[in-house]
Amino acid sequence: MSMSIKKGDNVKVLSGKDRGKTGTVLRALPAEGKVVVEGVAIVKKAMKPTAQNQQGGIVSQEAAIDASNVMLICPKCGQATRVGHKKDGKNKLRICKKCGAEF
Questions:
Q1: 53 within 8 A of 47, measured Cβ to Cβ
Q2: Record's family (predicted)?
Q3: Residue 75 and residue 42 in contact, taking contact as beta carbons nearer than 8 Å
Q4: Chain mean pLDDT for the chain
Q5: I want to staple 37 with a disulfide (CB 3.0 to 4.6 A). Which of 13, 23, 95, 98 is the partner?
């Protein structure tokens, strides 16, 4: 499955309990068709004490949500937009369908 959303992109959540929120993509999971967005789909997870996490306990963290439930925000026009693709020599570019700016 091909995804138009990559790590570091700003996205807007279209559906689910966090509809309307915006955030940055922390991880993209193209094999599963999911993304992890900062501050969205917060879940509680029980963690055992480890070398990095000395205390353990219950930790809040972001869960993966389906990539179809988010829409990329154009850095130029600032609106949530569909993503177009344009070929520039050997490079594939992502473009905004509303204003034509490249990502």
A1: yes
A2: Belongs to the universal ribosomal protein uL24 family.
A3: no
A4: 93
A5: 23
Tokens of 22: 């915006």
**Spatial CA neighbour of 40 closest among 67, 68, 21:** 21
Sole residue written with tokens 């991880």: 27
pTM reported for the whole predicted model: 0.84
Q: Which domains does the chain have, with CATH numbers?
A: 10-73 (2.30.30.30)
- E strands in the chain: 10-13, 22-29, 34-37, 42-47, 57-62, 64-66, 70-73, 80-81, 83-88, 91-96
For the cut 80, the answer to whether the pLDDT of residue 2 exceeds it is: no
Q: Which of 30, 26, 25 has the alpha carbon at shortest distance from 9?
A: 25
Q: Given a cut of 70, is residue 26 above it in pLDDT?
A: yes
